[in-house]
Amino acid sequence: MIRQADPPILLRDVIDDLDAVVGLLERNAPYTPLGGWYRPGADPDAATSPLWFQNDWVHADLEVEGAALFLHNERMIEAARRYYGAGSIAPHSVYVNQMAAIERGGPAHTDNPRFRGRDRSNTPMGLLRTMLWSGLFERWNIVQATSIWWMNDVEGGGFRYWPDGPDKPPQRHVGDVANTALVGDNHGMFHQVEPVGPFDRGTLRVSPRAELAPLADGSGEWAVTDRGAVRFRAPLERFRVSVLWKADVYPSEAEKRRLADDTLSLADVVRIFDDDLARRGEALRLDPDRLDDPERSLALSAVYPEARPVDAVPSIFDPEA
Ligand SMILES: [Fe+2]
């Protein structure tokens, strides 16, 4: 199945009070290296992590002070409403990425899906992604709008995206991105962070224990400290800072209420996959007790492969990187 989204909506001059964003960044330091499902089982003491730091500002159980600036941002909400022609936009997540000195791109990807009744809290991420690419669970897919906002213009750090589908050439948002946002469907549209400067020292790598925080030495600079040593320091404006915003999208409040009880159980997932596998003449079946078994996950995703977008730049997480 090829998913294809409309091009995202570009907003300019999104945030009036940029000092408030600096305050948010400072209050919520330190930041830790990107972990998660791209890098399972990383050795906590090996210098394997690029300078790609992340922190949550809003999720189901959290809303840090001042995050309303993004969470309830009227421009983002209005753009999402326009993009989807939807009556109900329910923002639920805000998180921030800070990056520097990464000579390769991030992974070209679509964002991880959620389904009513099934998300990463109760279902392996690999299975959720295969559910998406199978097209068998569209009825339960929770449509999510995404906004990406950029704080500053840095060396490199462009945003590469595939608004015409993964088999058509990508477009780029680069060069004049400070205080702009792109609002659209990052769950349906492939996208990728291009290499991030400064480029004069290769890709720096630190351990998963590293932290990014403002220095307290009066310099105004931020520093990456890893196991007691400063590995990189620079003014905040040299870091590629982006703030991600996500909202659930429903045609109307009434429709949102109507759908709330229509949820997927794990047994439903197994049954729907098994029926489809049988219909396709595949011998493979799901084992409800071993849904995160790597070999079976690979076999299942081979039946329902993800698209690979054309003209992606090499990723920092490619095995040869
Ligand atoms: Fe993404």
Given helix and strand content, the structural type is alpha+beta
Helix proportion: 10-25%
The SSE order reads EHEEEEHHEHEEEEEEEEEEHHH
So how many helices?
A: 7
Which features would summarize this protein structure in a list?
321 residues; alpha+beta; eight-stranded antiparallel β-sheet
Kindly describe this structure.
With 321 residues, this protein is α+β, with helices and mostly antiparallel strands. 21% of the residues lie in helices and 25% in strands. It contains seven helices and 16 strands. The protein has helices spanning 18-27, 68-71, 74-84, 125-134, 253-259, 266-279, 294-303; strands at 9-11, 32-33, 49-50, 52-59, 62-63, 88-99, 144-150, 159-161, 171-173, 181-184, 191-193, 205-206, 211-214, 221-226, 229-235, 240-250. Strands 1, 2, 4, 5, 6, 7, 10 and 16 form an eight-stranded antiparallel beta sheet that branches. It has a three-stranded antiparallel beta sheet with strand order 9-8-11, with no helix packed on it. The chain has a three-stranded antiparallel beta sheet with strand order 13-14-15, with no helix packed on it. Helix 4 packs parallel to helix 7 (294-303). The protein is globular. It starts with 8 loop residues before the first strand and ends in an 18-residue tail after the last helix. The mean pLDDT is 93. Bound molecules: fe (ii) ion.
